[in-house]
């Protein structure tokens, strides 16, 4: 009784169509990235606010297109069923919404903090009961904390 191992010469997994699709996705992502970079360099020279806003909008649209391709191909969601895709995309969209909301709220806090000084406003609007204290600093310019020291 002789035992011999036979080696299968036929490839088990022969998928030539997958590499073509990967290269196509690579070229699409590369093209979108190059267009984004070109728009970014163009934006440096644009002086008008409307032009800059339009270029930023175009870059955001291109970024979303790249995100779609990355999610579809590299996370393998292109061929999945709809419920699985929604299980991933809905939390992702909520995460993006939360990031935008936190950035907007943080910017609002920063702007309000820089324009409102409660201590100075209270001191300047509340009349003092001590007349000597009011007369003592009457000849000096009032300091609010927002001007620079000379």
Automatic annotation (TrEMBL):
It is found in: Cell membrane. It is a multi-pass membrane protein. It comes from the Bacteria. The chain crosses the membrane at residues 26-46, 53-75, 81-104. The keyword RNA-binding does not apply. InterPro entries: Cyt_c_oxidase_su4_prok (IPR005171). It comes from Segetibacter aerophilus. GO terms for cellular component: plasma membrane. Residues 120-138 have a biased composition (Basic and acidic residues). Keywords: Cell membrane, Membrane, Transmembrane, Transmembrane helix. Residues 120-150 are annotated as: Disordered. This is Cytochrome c oxidase subunit IV.
């Amino acid at each position: 009784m002789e035992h011999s191992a036979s080696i299968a010469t036929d490839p088990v997994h022969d998928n030539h169509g997958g590499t073509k699709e990967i290269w196509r996705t690579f070229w699409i992502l590369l093209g979108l990235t190059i267009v984004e970079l070109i728009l970014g360099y163009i934006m440096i020279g644009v002086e008008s606010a409307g032009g800059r806003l339009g270029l930023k909008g175009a870059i955001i649209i291109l970024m979303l297109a790249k995100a779609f391709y990355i999610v579809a191909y590299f996370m393998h969601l292109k061929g999945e069923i709809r419920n699985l895709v929604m299980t991933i995309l809905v939390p992702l969209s909520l995460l993006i919404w939360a990031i935008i909301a936190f950035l907007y709220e943080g910017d609002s806090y920063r702007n309000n903090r820089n324009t409102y000084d409660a201590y100075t406003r209270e001191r300047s609007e509340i009349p003092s009961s001590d007349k000597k204290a009011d007369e003592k600093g009457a000849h000096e310019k009032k300091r609010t904390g927002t001007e620079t020291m000379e």
